[in-house]
Amino acid sequence: MERVVLITGGNRGIGLATAKIFASKGNKVAITYRENPPDGIEDLGIHPFSCDVTDQEHIDQTFKDVEKTLGSVEILIANAGITRDSLTARTSDTDFSEVLNTNLTGAFRTAKKALRGMMKNRWGRIIFISSLSGRIGQVGQSSYAASKSGLVGLSRSLAKEYASRNITVNVVAPGAVRTDMLEKLSTDQISEYVDSIPLGRLGEPEEIGEIIAFLSSEHASYITGSVIPIDGGLYMG
Length: 237
Fold this sequence. Notes:
The protein is α/β, with parallel strands linked by helices and 237 residues long. Helix content is 42%, strand content 16%. It has one domain (4-177, 205-229): NAD(P)-binding Rossmann-like Domain (Rossmann fold). It has helices at residues 13-24, 56-69, 93-121, 133-136, 142-162, 187-195, 205-215, and strands at residues 4-7, 28-33, 46-50, 75-78, 124-129, 167-174, 227-230. Strands 3-2-1-4-5-6-7 form a seven-stranded parallel sheet, sandwiched between helices. β1, α1 (13-24) and β2 (28-33) form a beta-alpha-beta unit. The longest helix is centred in the middle third of the chain and has 29 residues, at 93-121. The model has no long low-confidence stretch (mean pLDDT 94).
């Protein structure tokens, strides 16, 4: 069945790969971006909208524009995120707050907005994109790990609150995936990371996107409040 899908931070990496997968399955797909939309994205049937998830007015306007263009949002993929990596003692209050405001509070804002239409339609899917860092922590990522861990508690609360409306809420927690964020690391750092992964390789954005698409489908209607690790077996906890 054709659905209206909104993916925040869908201009690259996992977000863009997921958007392409949803579009290939015949869905109406919207993505948000902060700076520049991907070239040629509209040729794929993907509609880009400028949106800053730290600004409620931006979010409200984006939902209005998406609804006017495509219809009420039925599937929300809360993917927008930033990093401000640094050892905790060197992390400023401003950097910590900016990361949480984007990654956690931004996800809360967009989910809260999407829930209105989902409740009215008595059907919806919300998927938060967390991270391995949110499950086990990482050196130099206290702000990022805190924001991604917070998504788990948020999702499980929403899952319990809205299950009676046929709305499922889940989290995917990718490990090392071949994205722009990972490419900021040195070759030696990436090689060391790969050596620690039981499957012995990096994940691909499309592999994450396919799991997200499954969780958004009717086939996953009995899955809610779950955290799905996609990390090559790195953390089997």
